[in-house]
Amino acid sequence: MFNAIIINKDAAGYRSELTQVDQAQLPEGDVTVRVQYSGLNYKDGLAITGKGPVVRKFPMVPGIDIVGTVEQTDSPNYQVGDSVILNGWGVGETHWGGLAQVARLKGDWLIPLPKAMAPRDAAAIGTAGYTAMLCVMALQRHGVKPTDGEIVVTGAAGGVGSVAVALLAKLGFDVVAVTGRAAEADYLKALGATSIMDRTELAEPGKPLAKERWAGAVDVVGSHTLANICASTRYRGVVTACGLAGGMDFPSTVAPFILRGVTLVGIDSVMCPRDERLTAWQRLATELEPTKLHAMVQEIGMGQVIDVAGKLLQGQVRGRVVVDVNR
User: Do both 217 and 136 map to the same domain?
Assistant: First the structure.
């Protein structure tokens, strides 16, 4: 038996609870992992609270992040005792995830824990931080340089935003951090933001084209925020979109794309190819300053997960949440 968060949906309704599970109930997979840490991401919050249609089959163990050690394996790529990371691949949606003490998974979904990285730090980075790195990599792949101008990061006090601010600042970019929480200004400046913008400045319907400002962007909000960022991005600037906290709609026009050559890059962390994942994690191991990472992390136990998941969706959680599944 092991502890896990279980989500059920039946005649009694939609509910999440911390309970004990028999290991015989684990789904199919060729690698069994003894989980050390998981995390709470926006998607986990939607799954646990039922506020979004994340979970596709029930019962489900949520948790799209897993950091742990291989306990049993039929995969030729891993041996017992190996430290591994998992992000995405439908885990926590269609396959039992990481908010449990044990997980059974497909070996193809795993990557090795970088040698320079502690397990807790890997969980602190999690899908949010890994997604932030994918955004940074996309900006660089499309030629955005620090000398080109400001980079705007929305949802900056959240998980993706916090890591994006820290990474971009380390690379020498001027970062404008957008947040609805004025009290987090000092926190964001400590991560490397050069200035703070209130999210209301981007949240309302705007013009098809606005004054050029941004060389690049990392957006987790979508909707009018993303549309306004595209409208005010400089000629040949690059906007990365990786979230929908403000909505799935995109009330924009083609004007920024055909008149200014703006590039809109969609960032998917769930099915991202293995080679790109490995590159992202190796860069995170060397480019994300540990002191900045530790400043954005709070650690909780399994008994706090359901309560904190609700607060996460309400925008009441700063940075990253690490879950020690063994307490």
Answer: yes
